[in-house]
Amino acid sequence: MLGGFSEEQIKRYSRHIILPEVGGKGQKKLLSSKVLCIGAGGLGAPIIEYLAAAGVGRLGIIDDDTVDLSNLQRQVIHGGNVGKPKVESAKQFVNNLNPDIDVRTYSERLNAHNVVDIFKEYDMVVDGSDNFATRYLVNDACVLTDTPLSHGSIYRFEGQVTTIIPHKGPCYRCLFEHAPPPGMVPSCQEAGVLGVLPGIIGLIQATEVVKYLLGIGELLVGRLVYYDALNMTFDEIKMRWNRNCPACGEKPKITSIQEEIYGESCRI
Amino acid sequence: MVTELDLKGDVCPYTFVKTKLKLEELEIGEELAVTFDHAPAVENVPRSLKNEGHKILGIEQMGDHLWKVRIRKA
Fold this sequence. Notes:
The complex is a heterodimer of chains A (about 270) and B (about 70).
Chain A: H1 7-12, H2 14-17, H3 23-31, E1 34-38, H4 44-54, E2 58-62, H5 86-97, E3 102-106, H6 115-119, E4 124-127, H7 132-145, E5 149-155, E6 158-164, H8 172-175, H9 188-191, H10 197-214, E7 223-228, E8 233-238, H11 259-262
Parallel strand pairs in A: 1-2, 1-4, 2-3, 4-5
Antiparallel strand pairs in A: 5-6, 6-7, 7-8
Chain B: E1 2-6, H1 14-25, E2 31-36, H2 39-51, E3 55-63, E4 66-72
Parallel strand pairs in B: 1-2
Antiparallel strand pairs in B: 2-4, 3-4
């Protein structure tokens, strides 16, 4: 044991420890961190894969879906597990990759009743959900519980990412106050998605999580990166805190999580 | 007081990784003496340590394939 690391851990994390910005201290921070991944789908797969590899000590994974053959075009952690619950498949992947990780699975939907209790257990939340109801629920619960959030979303060939540190920068509602009406935006299932797209967006999210946990670099706070795979461009949209924001404004309307705000939520 | 670290049998990059982990346990200004028997480490480790700002106080050859590097933590 050297610096609290086993021989195996020294080898496993050596490329992190070598970095002056990480070192043994940073690696220990990662190992003692708790991160919750919302969804183990397109975005969740690379997020879970790389956070586990990086040695984020506790990974919570919430998803109520099972692996379908059509998922494997992009959900790279679920190979060989068609028909299994995604949380079980993800846990199996993580256990094989890095036995240091304590995986907590939630085979349920995130909803107004369980969200606050679950979020309280974690240092940061990564949103890999694919619907507006969950996205707004996650944003509002993060603001209420003061939990940092990495937001990512994808559509066909495009994706967007931002990092939300509640009360220190704008939240998702500061930019998009309300979800578009149901049916206006087609889901991935209807619209299609380029298989590599969630890999890019999910890994930007994972990068932000690792940076936040280590306390290094400049986070995407108040900035939204918009990625266009067809033109291979990354644009940055400035986000401002909205003093009238219903979640994090001066007089917030949302002071608790009420089911009716989030309406009919479709699958994560 | 000098802290000793025996890294005989270790090769790069673990020679540096382990030296770095040991330095993290020391206070600024304290001295660490590391023993290596892996020849490339004698060049690589001091170079990497200097990049991180530490001071190399000396490198002594102790035997045929044995070196001691003395470091002051910055």
